[in-house]
Amino acid sequence: MAGSIKYKPKYGNSYAVVVGVNAYKHAPPLGYACNDATVFADQLANKFGFPSSKVTLLLDDNATLERIRAAIAELARATQDDDRVIIFYAGHGHTVSGNRREAGFLVPVGGNSDDTSTLLPWDELVSHGNLIRAKHVLYIMDACYSGLISTRKLAPGSARIARDMLSRYSRQYLTAGKADEVVADGGGPRKGHSMFTGHLLDGMDGEAASDDGIITANKLMAYVYDRVVRDPRSGQSPHYGWLDGDGDLFFTDPKVDPDPTKEKDTNDTLVVVPPDLQAPEEAVISPPDLDQVKTYLSENRHRIQLNELVMRQLRTAQQRLGEDEFPVHGPIGPEDFAERLQKYEKAMEDLLRTTVLLGRWAEQDQQSVIRQVAHVLAGRIEVKSGLVVYLALRSYPMVLSMYAGGIGAVDGENYLALKTLFTTPVSDHRNGGSKTVLESTVNAMLDVDRSEAFKMLPGFDNKYVPRSEYLFTRMQPILEDILFLGSRYEQLFDRFELFYALCYADLTGRSWAPPGRFGWKYTGKFHGEDPFNELVEEAKRERDNWAPVKAGMFGGSSNRFLEVAGGFKAGLLDKLSWF
Predict the structure, then answer these.
(1) Cα(337)–Cα(461) distance, rounded to whole angstroms?
(2) What is the DSSP secondary structure assignment for residue 104, as one 8-state letter?
């Protein structure tokens, strides 16, 4: 088992299987697949230390089903635990609809789409990856409909030291497009290459390198994603992530001490691992629903229809959130907690997508719809006995809505909507009277945090702020599907959580507020990122012309914001021992 093997923070051998097909026997020819494969193989050998004898290049007539299978099988025989492997394919892909799900295939040179026995199934390729002993395996697929691979479970995003990433098992993938997209054979930044591989090669030539020159699989994949989706000639969206494990393949040598007994070096390279940008297949909202919401938001005369649509979604969500589905008694192990979170998220899918749009575009006359979401989700929680964690989790749907709408609001600089999301008064089911929805939900989730329930989730046990890290990975697919944020997502998430914390401090008059991921970035030790000080400097520059205070946040005063931020800095951030 991979989890029982002690990997070293260095590589033994490096292997690659690189396939490119232009001249198909039973499929339309391609123009650049062979060139893509050839140049990619040359880069591995000449730039990244892959021995030429261990790079298998299969082009056109050599790219038969039998030879591809044989090359993959050879990797299983030849590799050792501390090796790295890259499997690259440029050519046609094919999709077949089955009874339960679609199946994806690679098309070898003699492959016939009418006979799946002549094709290479994705599932076979991935399952053979489990037989390869190498600790790091990366699949790069420049193929039509290759997005099918990304429906598998992914690991969360994080940041770790290079030594750790080199010592962890991983199976990673980068595909050229979603399952319903035809990817471009040409038209990219490099003449003679596909759109996808052109940007991939640019990244390998240094564009994806960190400040210290390190290129990891995830740095490269995030770069390719961002460049392809923003290329005006592109009609495809690459997907990337993990099939298994949470390590990271290094293209360049991070030059860490290979002694596995040595303590972590605090000056070691920090590896930022971008979370996957793939929306789960079940999370896709139907285009007519999204289009309706957008239409109703575009003109104030549709405010009644907008209200009715949101109320329908709220009623549906309420039915799904009943106590029959979410009892407040019962077991609370890691699997129970994870399953409950997923059930909440499933019940809220449609409403969350609508809330993203409300946060992004709702104007003055449409704020009442946002308030209605808060009243229904946060204001109708009954007082009753039960397990503290499960009682508190009844506020989780509102937390999800606050993050969805809040990040949408920050993206659109719609601070009026953000203010409404935070300050709508709701019933205080604990003490009677009323509280702002922000105070109500934060107080409830603190009960969950005290139990360290989010630390029970796989991969979150060693996080400083596991709830924030979990929401970071969970909210991204929802927002990406609708707002197409790309690499801006992390910045917007951190900015939202800063407002979430600072507004709570302002409303409660306290110097403490729940820290998010921005906490471990404080002081700028992580590649210069310090969202807190960046926000403070922005407020200082713009003073009372700053958009958040013009919208009425922090009493409409930049001085008040700076006072709150100063108290938060002294009362919490300066006391954190995370650095």
Answers:
(1) 14
(2) E
